[in-house]
């Protein structure tokens, strides 16, 4: 199946992905609008991948995670760093793995 | 301990409980194997993520840098304007694959890198800096799409692993010990009944002998 990509983030990020040919974008300004837009993207049907900046995710807060948990497999949601390269310390995947495997898995960075 | 009260000690019940125990142990072995397989799969995915993430972050950084330079040279408004004019026809193919009953996505993307003419913004109004920015962003999008596939896969695997682990633990620490307890209880009870019967018969024999 063919899908489109959506991006949620600050103006620069959105402009950058626009240049790369991404069709659906939303400039994050306040929580309510972004949440509504996220809802629209999630239920759109044509969108297969949503890229959202870490900052926007933090602004939306727990509602984001709840909403993402509720959705099925599609659309995929990926959090990306924004223009300032901001990535939070707490990695969700790491957290989940620590909970399930019971140990912290540290991947060796090979020749970084 | 509730099991002890509700079970009536007879041979029928013993057979039933033994069957259940065998089934539970079989299920436990299977789940344990599944868990090991999941962990292996997860580790492989994590390794791939590690690589892909570093690449994606670096490429995205390059993209943003090129974009910042472009904005500085052309002006923010002009850049955003050009971005709005860009042809937006990026499509990705997502198909769903099954690993051990878990649905994971496979994303394919083609034709993400375009030449400046195909992008659709007016060339005489913009500079080559915009072209560079657009190209870097296209590359960044490509690696991000790959990363998305891996991350979602890892999440699905980890969630399934959590579920499996819970089941394994439930079997190992609750169901199987409880069933073993029941088996032991019934056997003890049956032995006890047999001994009771034996002494009763001995006693009756003694009484009859005394009488006769």
Provide key terms for this protein.
heterodimer, A: 112 residues, alpha/beta, Rossmann fold, 4-stranded parallel sheet, globular, B: 212 residues, mainly alpha, Helix Hairpins, rod-shaped
Notes on the protein architecture:
- The complex is a heterodimer of chains A (112) and B (212).
- Chain A is of the alpha/beta class and 112 residues long.
- Chain A has a single domain (4-85), classed as Rossmann fold, CATH 3.40.50.
- Chain A contains five helices and four strands; from the N terminus they run βαβαβααβα.
- A four-stranded parallel sheet of chain A has the order 2-1-3-4, with helices on both faces.
- In chain A, strand 1, helix 1 and strand 2 form a beta-alpha-beta unit.
- The longest helix of chain A is centred in the first third of the chain and has 12 residues, at 31-42.
- The N and C termini of chain A lie far apart (36 Å).
- In chain A, 39% of the residues are buried.
- The mean pLDDT of chain A is 77.
- Chain B is mainly alpha-helical and 212 residues long.
- Chain B has one domain: Helix Hairpins (Orthogonal Bundle), CATH 1.10.287.3240.
- Helices cover 79% and strands 8% of the residues of chain B.
- Chain B contains five helices and two strands.
- Chain B has helices at residues 2-6, 11-74, 76-85, 116-119, 128-211; strands at residues 92-99, 102-109.
- Chain B has a two-stranded antiparallel sheet with strand order 1-2.
- The mean pLDDT of chain B is 84.
- At the A-B interface, strand 1, helix 1, strand 3, strand 4 and helix 5 of A face helix 2, helix 3, strand 1, strand 2 and helix 5 of B.
Briefly characterize the structure.
Chain A is of the alpha/beta class. Helices cover 42% and strands 21% of the residues of chain A.
By secondary-structure content and strand pairing, the structural class of chain A works out as alpha/beta
Gap from first CA to last CA of chain B:
49 Å
Helical content of chain B stands at over 70%
- In the CATH classification, which architecture of chain A applies? 3-Layer(aba) Sandwich
**Poorly predicted segments of chain A:** none
Tell me the count of domains of chain A: 1
Q: What spatial order of strands do you see in the largest sheet of chain A?
A: 2-1-3-4
> Rough shape of chain A?
globular
User: How much strand of chain B?
Assistant: 5-15%
Highest CATH level, the class of chain A = Alpha Beta
Q: Report the principal-axis shape of chain B.
A: rod-shaped
Number of domains of chain B: 1
Main sheet properties of chain A = 4 strands, parallel
**Total helical elements of chain B:** 5
Encode the helix/strand succession of chain A as letters.
EHEHEHHEH
Query: What's the rounded overall pLDDT mean of chain A?
Result: 77
Order of SSEs of chain B, N→C? HHHEEHH
CATH topology of chain A: Rossmann fold
């Amino acid at each position: 199946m063919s899908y489109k990509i959506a991006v949620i983030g600050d103006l620069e990020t959105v402009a950058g992905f626009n240049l790369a040919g991404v069709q659906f974008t939303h400039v994050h300004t306040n929580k309510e609008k972004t949440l509504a837009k996220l809802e629209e993207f999630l239920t759109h049907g044509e969108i297969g991948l949503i890229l959202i900046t870490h900052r926007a995710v933090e602004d939306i807060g727990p509602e984001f995670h709840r909403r993402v948990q509720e959705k099925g497999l599609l659309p995929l949601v990926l959090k990306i760093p924004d223009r300032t390269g901001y990535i939070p310390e707490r990695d969700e995947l790491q957290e989940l793995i620590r909970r399930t495997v019971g140990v912290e898995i540290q991947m060796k960075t090979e020749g970084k | 301990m509730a099991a002890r009260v509700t079970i009536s000690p007879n041979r029928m019940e013993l057979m039933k409980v033994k069957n259940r125990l065998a089934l539970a142990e079989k299920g436990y072995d299977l789940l344990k194997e599944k868990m090991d397989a999941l962990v292996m799969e997860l580790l492989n995915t994590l390794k791939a993520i590690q690589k892909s993430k570093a690449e994606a972050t670096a490429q995205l950084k390059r993209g943003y840098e090129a974009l910042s330079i472009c904005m500085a040279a052309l002006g923010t408004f002009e850049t955003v304007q050009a971005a709005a004019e860009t042809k937006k026809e990026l499509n990705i193919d997502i198909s769903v694959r099954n690993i051990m009953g878990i649905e994971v996505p496979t994303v394919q993307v083609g034709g993400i890198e375009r030449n400046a003419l195909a992008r659709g913004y007016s060339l005489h109004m913009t500079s080559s800096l915009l072209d560079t920015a657009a190209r870097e962003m296209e590359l960044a999008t490509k690696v991000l799409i790959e990363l998305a596939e891996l991350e979602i896969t890892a999440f699905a695997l980890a969630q399934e692993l959590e579920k499996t682990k819970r089941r394994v633990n439930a079997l190992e620490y609750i169901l199987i010990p409880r069933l073993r307890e029941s088996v032991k209880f019934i056997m003890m009870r049956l032995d006890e009944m047999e001994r009771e019967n034996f002494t009763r018969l001995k006693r009756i024999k003694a009484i009859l002998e005394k009488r006769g």
